[in-house]
Design brief:
Blueprint lengths: L2 H9 L12 E2 L10 E14 L5 E16 L5 H23 L14 E12 L4 E16 L3
Parallel strand pairs: 1-2
Antiparallel strand pairs: 2-3, 3-5, 4-5
Length: 147
Amino acid sequence: MSDLEKIRTWLLSYPKIAMAHGLKVDYYSEAPEGSSIAPSGLQEISSSEDILGNITVENQLNFALHFVFPKSPEDDVGATENAEWLLELQQWIQEQSILRKIPAFGDDPKSETVKAQNGELAYADADGTGIYTVLLSINFIKKYEVN
């Protein structure tokens, strides 16, 4: 299973994910069922080499999550529900990471973490749609042995 499939499958296990109406890859519309996950790359955080030439790399996978929800102008009730859902998702991700209930991406699953940050309303229109975003990062270790 690819890293993208792992993270998408895991996110779809969030108990309240039904409000997001699925999680498409790299696509969303301004319709309330347009939620998506967009990979934004792999970043090397650090690397080290031992005396045998083996390399250990700390990597970070980054994703942007986009959730399209109904949000009518001046509707505080709907806006509150959306904001609470977003905060609860971020708390669930934090809990899953702490309890080690996240997919394995590298060679040292005990050291892996997932963080959900910067949850916010990115865009709202007058027609009653709001696009909320969360930045997701996954840190993991990869080890490369020289033969």
